[in-house]
Structures are given as C-alpha cells and as structure tokens.
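Sequence only, no structure available. Ideas?
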Amino acid sequence: MTLPIVRKAQRADKVIRFIECLTVPSGIGAGKRFKLEPFQKDFIRDIYEPHVGANRAVRRAILSIARKNGKTALIAAIVLAHLVGPEAIVNGEIYSAANDRDQAAIVFKFARQIVELEPELRAQIDIISSTKTMVARRTGSVYRAVSSEVGTKHGYLPSVVIYDELAQARNRDLYDVLDTAFGAREEPLFIVISTQSNDPEHVLSKLIDDGISKIDPSIVCHLYAADEDCELDDETQWLKANPALGVFRNREDLVAAVRKAKRLPAEEPKVRNLFLNQRISPISSLISRAEWMACGGTRDDAALVDGEDIYLALDLSSVADLTALVAGSAEEPVRIQPFFWKPADHLADHSLRDFGAGTHRYEQWRDQGHLLASAGRSIDPEAIALLIAELVGRYNVKGLAYDRWRIADLMREFDRIGLAAWEDKGAEAAKSHEDGLRMVPWGQGYRDMGPAIDALELAVIERKLIHPHNPCLTWNMANAVATMDPAGNRKLDKDKARFRIDGAVALAMMLGLRSRDRVTEQPVDIESLIA
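Reply:
I predicted one. Tokens follow.
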C-alpha cells in the first residue's frame, strides 16, 4: 500500500527561521539578518513540507534561475541548516558541488563568513579552510565544498548535495558520482541551483524537463525563465527570470546588460541565457528551440506514405563521424524522416568527445532507433546506398541533394548494387535521364546554402514542417549557426558550431532542392505578365 503525501509545514518553518537568524556577510544587506524572498520560501517549503509517513518525500530539487539572484547565499544557508541547523543529523555528509575550484571556493567562503559572524555557530563548528571543510562538533557531520577537479569522490556517502551551476558542467562525472553515492541514507537530498543549459540533451535540461512534468512526486522543480520569444526590453519578462529583481538582484546591472545586447547583437544570446534564463546557446542558433519544438509531431504525424513524391538530402561525414540523410514529402506540410549513421566502434569515445565523460548518448540513440550504427570503425557506404535504394523503391524520389564530399564512394556503391543514378547539371541533362535517381550537387557556400536556409526558416516559422522529435536532429538544429556575407546571404558554419550540425545541413539542402523545384515547375501566367 502506497502512503499518501502530506505536508508538514513545521519542518519547513524551522528551516526558514534558522536561515533568517543568520547574518548576511557581504554584498547587498551585509551585516543584516537574512530575509528570504517569497520565491526562496516557496522553494524551501516544496522541499521540506511534503512527507510520506515520517520521512521527507522530496529527494531531488531543482531551482533554475537567472544569474545574480542570491544563489550562493541560498546554497550556503541550506548547507548550514543541514550541518548544525534543524536538518542536522548524526554523521551527515553535506557537499556543495561546483565545476571548478574557484567556484567551489566561493560557496565555501560565503558559508565560512556566515559562521564567523555568529558566536553560537563558531562554538559548534570547526573550520578547515585548506580543504574547504567544516565539521559539526556535536553530531560529527561534515560539510565540504568539492569540484570536478578534485580527485576521486567514490568514498563519499552524502546525505545532502547542492550542485551550483550544473549548466556549466562540461561532463557529468561529478554529478553521477554524487548522485549514485547516497547509499542507505534515510532522507537523501540532491539540490541543483543553476541557470539553464543551452543544450536540450544536457543532464540539467533533462532534470528540468522531468521535474516540470510533475510525474514523480519526489522531484521538485522551480523554473524561472523569460518566454523564449520575448523582447529583450520587456520588463515583465525580466521578472519571470529574476524574482529578486530590485531586492538583491541589481536592476541597473540588468538594464546595462540589455542595452548592450540591443546595441551589439552578438551579446544577445549571452544575455538571454544568463540573465533571462532561456535555454539558448551563447552563440545564436539559426532556429530557436521554441520554433523547432513547435513543429514537432509524433512518428505517425511525420510518416511518409508509400508511393508519394519525396526529396532526399545527404550530408556525408568523414569515415568516422556523423552522416545524415533526410527524407521529406514534396507536399506541405513537409513531413520529414531523418537517418543518422555512426561507426559502432566510435559510439562510446565520441559520446565522451561530444557530450562529456559519463555520457552514452550515441549508444542510447542507437538503442532507441534514432541512430544507425555501422559495424567497425568507419561508416560503410554500402549501408547508406542500400537505404537510399530502399527509399527509391518505396517512394517516388524527385531528387537527392548532396554535398560533394566523398560522394564518389557512394556512387561506386550505387553501381555495385545496381541503383541507376545521374547527376543533374541542368535542363538538358534532365531531358536525357528520365530514369534513375536524380542527384543534385549542392554547394556549401553562400550561393547554394542561402536559399536553402531561407526555405528552412520559412518552413519552420510558418509551421509547414513536421519532424518526429528525433533527438539527434534536434541536437543538430540547436547547434546550427549561420554566418552571413556582405550581401546578406547565409550559410551554415560547421567551424562556428559548438557541436555536430550534419542533420541541419541535410534538412536545409532537402528543403532548398524542394523549393528550387517548386519555383522551376511553377507555370507562368502570360496574360498576367502582359497585364
């Protein structure tokens, strides 16, 4: 029988009263007692009030908020509440986790300063600054500030972990070690306080998405973020991401950052991510996450129908990296089906390279059917040729746009398996090749990619595209960055992109070819021209 969750306000009240008896050591309000803001009290209540039987029900809590909203002070105060306050237990282990030594030192320094200002706390706590450690004399509980740069942490048995700015973690090593170390603790608690990550596949993004779904009552997530499509100078949106604005979040500092971003467009993504807490890359993506996700549908919504007209586009990689093929319907809305390949032998090490230690994203995508693994250490062009041949047999393929890189290898495979194909070099070539797969070379410079990017943007903005939420394609789209020439033409820039964009390139080429053909096939109304 599952026990019901009940709320016990007294427990949260004790934590709040303890924190508000502490003295602010530095910054705004220095020398005065802590005064928790409503959003901070709400977060504390949602952690400590829900109970199942005698135990706290919440095991994981996420507070995602813009920078400079009192994050460090709140972490330090919660640490002390568990070290010597109302949440203290015998032989507890409390850790504040950060991504580097300097960041870890900031939280420890703030907690140490609080202790040094309170004679009662000084009498209860031994401070060992050299190891960023505090020890509670009465209970034997220990607090330590740790970072991913410190040696092994596999000997830890935490009762509480508070991770500072998880979004900035380059890998999930520290998170995973601490998350799996709670062991037999009766009331384990893992708190994350961080701005959002720009990567939808980052561990923090997954935690936030899971938390706001409210599927698991042991998880609490408070997300303070501006709407993704908001104007930078919309002050009501500032408050959504900065609930401490005008209190201990300096308003003029935010105003100055927004003004700078409006003058210098290159600053805008950084301001949106750090100050408005939007899930956006510091380098502006071609398509915003909100726009892309609005075009998502189920697999059935995006499915292609046997025999219908479709277009293909292929972005071949080096032999060891990601290759992308995108199929899309000729009719609107364009329903797309992406296919990705990676060498099986590189899935693990490339997960490490592209996503950080402790991740197995490529293996997960393979297991979920989102990625095709080619046996060995290279992508077998035969596997690509066979899938294209299957698509040619199943649908009426109007054309395949391709980047010229390594295309000769694929053409040899076409010859070997008996798939007729011809290169479209213009109208005359088309007349002499009525049969076989039409292959359309697609340059990666501004001339060819400019119209392709325009077609991609238009399809997304006008909701004339349906994608099946393939996570590899969504990741590629989040990484896609466009550069512009003096004439205003754009191309996707793999050098400026932080991660892989092969799927985005293939999708743009497919839509570009489709758009080009539609213009070519559009009948000319002579009478309207004369009129």
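The radius of gyration is 28 Å.
Hope that gets you unstuck.
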